[in-house]
Each structure stands twice: as C-alpha cells, then as structure tokens.
Fold each of these.
Amino acid sequence: MAGDGVKWDGLLKWSLSHSDGTRPPRNIREEDRRWFMEAMQAHAVDVVKRMREITMVMRTPEEVLEAQGVTPSDIEGMLDELHEHVEAIDMANDLHSVGGLVPLLGYLRNSNASIRGKAAEVVSTVVQNNPRSQQLVMEASGFEPLLLNFTSDPDITVRTKALGAISCLIRNYKAGTTAFRLANPYSGLRDALSSNNTRFQRKALNLIQYLVQENSSDCSVIAELGFPRLMIHLASSDDLEVREAALGGLLELARDGTAGNNIISTEKDQLSQLLQNRIDDIRSMSPDDLRAAREERQLVDSLWSICYNEPSVLRKEGLVVLSGEESFEMPPDVAGRFFEPPLRAWAAKAPPSNEGQVWPTEQRKRHHCV
C-alpha cells in the first residue's frame, strides 16, 4: 500500500468523518483501522535518522557534493528541513549528539549567501529558549562566525539573520552576553540602526533594549555613542514595529537616572518634537489604527511623563487606554502554548539552569530573534 502512495484528501475526509461531531461515534471496522495505520506508518519520518543523513551531507566537502550534482538550492532545501526538525527542543539538542551542530556552524562561512542565511536561521531555532544548546554553540565557537556575518557580511539579509541568531544565543545566557559585550558590537548595532532595512533595524533595537534592561551600565555606553539620536529618528519610522522598538529603547534609557538625564538635556529639542509629532499622529488615527498602535500610545505617554513629569495629552483625552480596553498591560498569553512545538513550550516553563533563564511566553514573542 505504501508503494501506491497515500491519497491524502481521502485520508483527511475519512478522519473528519469520524471526528467532526456531526454523527454519533461508531465502531471502526478492522479493515478501516488497518488501512489508516498503514497509511500513517508508510509516511512516518524517523527524525533522528533524517538528522543523521543531513549531518552526513553537511560533513561532505563542497567539491564532492558539486561533483555529485548537489546544488546550493538542494542545500537550502535540506537546511529548511533541518529547521523544521529542530523546532522540537529535544531534537535541537540531539543535533549535537548526532554530530550535526559543528557542520551546521560551518555553513555560516559558506560562500553562498543564501546558505549562510539559512544556517543562521537554523542556529536561531536551535538555541532559542534552550540553555543547553546555547552552551554547546558557544563551546563549538559558533559565536565568532555569527558576529562576523552580523558586522561585515556584504549581504544585508545574512547580516540580519546573523543578528537574530546572536540575539537568541545570548538572551538570558550570561556567557553569551559577556562575549557579546567583550566583542564591542556597538558599531555593528549602529550600522543596523542606520540601514534602510526595517527588519535589521527592529532586531537591533530589540537587542539594544534587552541589553539596557539586563545591565544598566549599557545605558551610559549607548547614550555616549549617540544611539539616542538614531532611535529618535527611527521612532518616526513608517514601520509600526520599528517605531515601537525605538520608543521602547528610549523609554528604557530615560528611566536610567544618569543616561536619562543626559538624553533629556542633550536631545531635548529633538525628543520634544518627536513626542509632539507622535501625539499629533495618534490623535488623528482612525479607530482601527488606534487599536493597532496600542503599545505605541502607551510608550509615548510613558516617555512624555518621564521627560516632563506630567501626563501627556493622550492620557488627558483618554487615548492611552481606549474604551473597552481593560488595562494597558499586555494580556496574558493563554493560547500561545497551543500553537508552538509542545516540547519547546515545555522548555519555556522549565526551571532555569545555572547559566540560562527561560523567558515567559509573552516576552519571548515580543523579542523573537529569528
């Protein structure tokens, strides 16, 4: 039966007919049960076996693969498949066990930009919310090629994906965060903020916000390097997520006593103009746009309150919390755990190890690093 192929449409209809709730349950004939089991077993995938096969390919020299007709597109497809497998956290850790982590990191240095980018995406998923894999990647010297790709790769997409992988690698992992700071990454982050790529900007802004939240000493460094001016500029971006990330970063800096006072004094005119422009734009938004800009409204009001020690016009006009919005705190994530791989969801709830700390689901979504 496996050789004939499975009629997936028929299999789906058969499944629905026995579980759609429109008819009372009935006993399944042995013939139907056997057909269903054979269909599923014929297409079951041994994930560990597939990861070993993919590892074998990744270990094979590039010239040998080329001689056998393997194209860069084939490699990209293979990495896409590997990406799906490592969504489950036990499979992500098994990648090292089957010998696949080191050759995957080797693809970060591949001559093909698309392959470098795909490899960074896989690394992001391997280390996300996974202290064990964060440690393994650092021990396998995976940080260095990621940093090199982030700071100097000629392809902006590769730089963006490398930054996403770095963000996942160091987040709530002390050794990774320390290595990142020692690498003096600020010129690369400044380049990202100055780029025209909104995704690159967002990832840099989110990482900056994480750094200043995690260590207040970064506030002064970032302020001294002129980041606030760039962030003020990006807070007027046409991209809502960029605006929110920039405003969030400015708010974190403003909350810091020394750095905040310096920003408010040195960038007073630009900051004042920014906030007034954002308030004017928000006041002119349609109801749908107002709902979409919920976080932006709260950030503008909070930043205004810190800078001028008074409520903003938005609060006075009831635009910080609209009618029907119970509060301006982020609502609890009651559904997210049902829409992510169950083992990774379990890992997000597990007690942190000595080095790593798992983020709550809501924070993980906001600071997603892929």
Note: Residues 2-42 form one domain.
Amino acid sequence: MTDDRPLGADEATFLAAVRADDTARFALITERYRRALRVHCYRMLANYEDAQDLTQETFLRAWHKRESFKGHAALRTWLYRIATNACLDFLEKRNDRTPVPAGLSGADWEVLYLQPYPDRMLPEDPQESVVARETIELAFIVAVQHLPPRQRAVFILRDVLGWPASKAADSLELTVASVTSALQRARVTMREQLPDRRFDWRITDAHELSNDERGVVKSYIDAHERNDLDGLTSLLRDDLRFAMLPDAGTLTTTAKDAVEGWVSGGLFQCGHDDWRGITTTVNRMPAAALYLRTPGDPEHRLFAIAVLRIADGKIAELTGFDATGKPWLGLPPAL
C-alpha cells in the first residue's frame, strides 16, 4: 500500500519510535489519531462502547505490527487500515451486530445496539473529522448498518473518507473491480435507506444548533418540567418516528398516541413526574438530557437522553436512550 507523498513528520517520528522500540513515543504519536479512529469505528459498529474497544484494539495491533510500517503510506492510512480490519474481525464474530426485524408495525428493521455519540468526543479539527454533519447523524449510522460488513467498509472508505478505489482495495485485500462493485451496491442500499438525503458525504459542515432547534429543545424540556402533556403533544409531528433503545419497537405514531403511550407506560405519573432537563447535542443533533427525581431522593438523577430530528419547528424523530451508567456521555449524573 503506497501513497504518492513525501515522508511526513508523523511518519518519520513513528519510524524513529519503531526503530528505538520506544513505547512512549509510539503512544504519543498514535494518540493524536484516537478521536478520528473512534469515529471511524463508530460508523462501522454504531455503538460507542464497541468503538472505544476497537480503537484500543487498533493501537494494540499497530504496536504488534509496527515493523510492517515502512513509511510508504501515510501513518493515518495505515492506522485506518488496521482499524477497519479490526472492526471486520469483530463483526465476523458477532451475530448480534446486524439490524433485526422490527417487532412493531411502522418500521421494517431496528438497530438495537445503536448508541449515541457524544459531540465532545468528535475530532476538534473539522479537517480531521473528514466528514459532513450527515455522516454522524443517527439516520446515517442506522442506514450504514444495513450494508454487509465488507460492503460497509468499502462505502465508508470510498464515499465518506474519500479514498481512491486502489487504496481501499489494498486496505481490504480486494481487487479494484471488487471494490467498485461493492460500492455500487452499497450506494443503492443507502439511497433506499436515505431517499431524501444528498450524497456528497465529504463536504465538511460544522454544526451549531439553530435558534429554532434550541427553542424546540427548550420547549420539550419545559413541557417535561411542567408535566404539560398538551404542550408536549404540540411539539410532535403527527408522523413522529419514535424509538427507546435498547428496547425493541421503533414506530411511526401520531403525536397524541405517542404521548398517551408514554403516560400509560408510567411517565408523568406519580413517581415519574418530577423532571429537570438540559439542552445538549449528540451525533451533531439536538438532544435533551432528562433527569428524574424519585420520591425520597434529594436530587434529580440522569434518566434518559432524547435525540431529536427537528423539521419545520416540530419534532419529526425522537430516539431515546437510557443514559444511566454511561459516563462517556459527559453529562452531569445529577442536578
């Protein structure tokens, strides 16, 4: 695998660390790629905790294979190759890391292992993230999971990272023809899963919440804090898509039925009616972190995070995640 490029500072430092068997220098030079590699693994796996583990596995493999790095390719390319193949090895061993048929009407497939990605863990340099906002949003991550693992890898390397076919083929030990064929099939599936999206994934688009988005999230939190069911209903579109992961059951429902379903499930009832919330973002999407105070507890405890897709001032999609026991979200455990 060869990049037509002069030896860079990172490559030279890495080679010096390898020759000296210097673990400290090796760790220092590879650590700067951690965030970008973790995002890459997350796109492959849709699970933040798995992505953390596979990023660490990438560094372990890189150390064991350090003698194979000759500086002919960029260090970044070499690490991405190792990370991609580590993810493929993981997926080969796990039969629970594919979408499953939905248990409820209104959705065909569900990704029960999906986890949110904390924005604070994204690469700080927009050029380092090498992706548009859309490629970290939940809808994109879910759509990618419908691709077979090797096809998924081809799609991410080619259409997200922008690698040429020859470099992707080298990394996956495939022919260029095989990579081209896999990419064509992957694009068909992605267009089926995301029919309303543009497909120039490599345009970098830093995102801050708009005033409208902030307003909707604030109103969503206010409705919880006031137990205002009418106000909550008014924020939801009548074709709302709702899921509460990792529970099965993504469904399209009316706003009224959605709120009634939450109430019948115990929310906004005695013991589940003392809420606080804070506005945040995950997957570069607006989100509300919800805190619940149960009887006898002096504090509101982190309960769930609701990730919202807002369209025309209404909540079109709401994906809820159990937020307990996830310190990596970077949220206060109590308010």
Note: The mean pLDDT is 88.
Amino acid sequence: MNTKDIIKGRGAQQNTTNRFSEFSSELRDDFLEFCRLEEDEADSNKTLYLPIFPKTIVNKVDSPDVGMTYSLNPYQGCEHGCIYCYARNSHEYWGYSAGLDFERKILIKKEAPKLLEAKLKSKNWKATTIVLSGNTDCYQPAERKFEITRACLEVFLKYRHPVGIITKNALVLRDLDILTQLAKDNLIGVNVSVTTLSENTRRILEPRTASIKKRLETIRILSEHHIPVNAMLAPIIPGINSHEILPLAKAVADNGALSIGFTVVRLNGAIGGLFEDWIRKTLPDRADKVLNQIKECHGGSLNDSRFGIRSRGEGKIAQQIHEMMHLAKRRYFKDKVFPKLNTSLHHQYKDGQLDLFDQF
C-alpha cells in the first residue's frame, strides 16, 4: 500500500465540492506551507457531533428495489468511513461534503425516540417493519455516546412493533436485553454487513468498523439468542472482494446466519470521484483493473441509476457474481429461512400497554 499522504482512520481522502453549494474550497500549497511554518495543523481530522431537530423521523422509502418500506436514521453521516457508501451523497443535502465531512461531521437526532413514539401512537399508523439504518449505521461510534438507537428499540418493544436493523458494528450486542425480548414475539431481524474476510482489506475499505472477527462473533451470539440474522455480503466489488463470495457465505452460515443478501457496487454521485481517489492512493497497483471491472458491470460507467439493475449490475462479471451467489445460497443456506416479522401485536399496544378490550 502507498501510505504517503493517507489520512489514517478515514475512508475518503478528500472533501468533494458540494453540488448544491455555490462555494468550493481547496487546500492550497501556500496555506499548507504556512501551517507547517507555524507548527499548526491544516486539518485536525477530529469528529464533530452536531445536533439537529427534524420534525419527523420515520421515512417512507419510495425506491422499489431497496427492500424496505420505512426507515429510521438516528444519525446522518457515518464515522465508519466506508469508501463505497451510497449514503455519502445524502450529506450534501445538509450542506456538507460527501467526502471527509460525511465521516467527521455527524448529525445527531436526539429527539428520535419521542418522534418515533408519536408515530407509532398515531391512529393512522398500521404496523409494518421499520428498518434502523436505511441510510447510515445506527450503531456507528456515536451510538456509544448518545444511545439513541437503544432508546428507539425501547419504544419498539413498548409498542410491540416490528423493527429491522442493518449494521456492521458489534455494538449491537450491547442491546441484547432488548433484542431478546423483541425476538420472543418475532419482532426483530438483524442484518449484519460482512464485506470481506481480510482484515487488511477491511481496514482500508471500512476503516472504523468492527473487525471481521467481531462481526462473525456478533452473528454467532445473536443467533445463539434466537435473534434471526441475515448477512449482507455487500457490496461485492470486482477485483477487491468478488473472489471471497463462497468463503464469506460459509463463514456467516457457520456462525448462524439464516440468509444472505448482496449488491454489486455502484459509485453514484460524488462517490465515483471519491472512490477513484481512494483506490489510486491505497491500491494503486490494481486501481485501473478494479475501476474498469466496475464499469463493465454498469454499461461502461461507475454508476447505473436504473431501478432493478443499479444494484445488481449486468454483463459477464455481474453474471459471474450472481452465479457464485446462487451457488453459495444452495450450498450453505438450503434449509434455512429468515422469518417474516410479526405485525399483528402492535394494534393491541397503541397506548403502550396491552389493550385488555382486545382480549375479549
């Protein structure tokens, strides 16, 4: 790896220009030289937590190929720093960059539990699974400090409402007490993202995520507590982790996962430039090969925005990925089923406790 000028502990290595802003900034050589002479840091690389106050917290997902109907994101931006993350572009709507700002300026929604409770108590709301982390990871490092995700889970339990979780952080195990109670009524499903079995790859691809060992351990412990786990082998990046599909599938199956899912990487919006800058700095020897193979999956582009195709890819390389994933499912998940979550209890708990009149 070429370590020169690498910003340690971060995925993105620069801040891209916000497409919605009329202003742009750059680190000029004369400014960097001034900082050097003054023995000052041009960039502190510290994470900032910034409170925001949305009026609603449950989001309707209109995209037909995402696999969820409603999502809830306690945080915007994500310190995990996964270079491929599709959520990076959403940070531009808040006036920040999809690059380093996405990893270092984390927006905190402290009122999320209260907003969620109001939503679940609404007379017009009918129970359907709400997924925590439809955009950014609900168990990213900020959760250890703010515990917003845990407070939301307490609300879901109080109202006996089904909830899904997507994470790549072992911090989810902190909330086993709540998760096991939800699981008793089939109200919880956890999706654990496992992108590679190589720690070297993980460190540069997803710098502030839990180790692979920790993630596999998380799947095992959740499964042992009868909490259903789907492993997301996503994204599959040709030339980086595409050769790991079968070993990945076996590893998550051996640790108790009931199913697997996947996507083929697509680098939409600002992510294309960020990814290319990242790979030329971290994996320069294979940068051209990887970028060309990604393009081959998307008709010659790093991105494809067509619903139903954008996350699946097309062409020979994408077909090989699909065939390998089909083989993995047949070999390791033949007799396993991820359960459909229970939506029948919530109407009895609209006021936060069992409605006795519904029992007669």
Note: The mean pLDDT is 90.
